[in-house]
Amino acid sequence: MRLLTHNMLQCHARGCTTRNYPLRFEEVRLDTEEKTEVNPDFIMGMLPKLDWAALRTTAMQLGMTELPEQAPDTTMDEATIHALHAILLDTRVMEGKMVCDGCGHVYRIKDGVANMLLTEHEV
């Protein structure tokens, strides 16, 4: 699961309406693949769609400290574009879990795929 995807996920378990975003990673195994070509236009287009605070918090939890405190504007330098690309697209969570701070629900990640399905009593 890419961190770009994680930035858009929240807990939907029954009764969970507060502190359900962002989901917190635990016990993760990361894979960094530098197979995708950096596309500055794509990164710039995604920037307004990202929750910057959530992305930065998640990146810090995973030991990635290269993101600036404030979201960059349209004059982003090349180093920031490359750092953002590496975090959003080249870093994948292969194994682990995402935990909701609001209700404690655990979403498992296996082979790079997050299981966001809820059982009938959780919906």
From TrEMBL:
Signal peptide: none annotated. Belongs to the TRM112 family. It comes from Syncephalis pseudoplumigaleata. PANTHER family: MULTIFUNCTIONAL METHYLTRANSFERASE SUBUNIT TRM112-LIKE PROTEIN, UPF0315 PROTEIN-RELATED. This is Trm112p-domain-containing protein. GO terms for biological process: rRNA (guanine-N7)-methylation; tRNA methylation. InterPro entries: Trm112 (IPR039127), Trm112-like (IPR005651). GO terms for molecular function: protein heterodimerization activity. It comes from the Eukaryota. Coiled coil: none annotated. Gene3D superfamilies: 2.20.25.10.
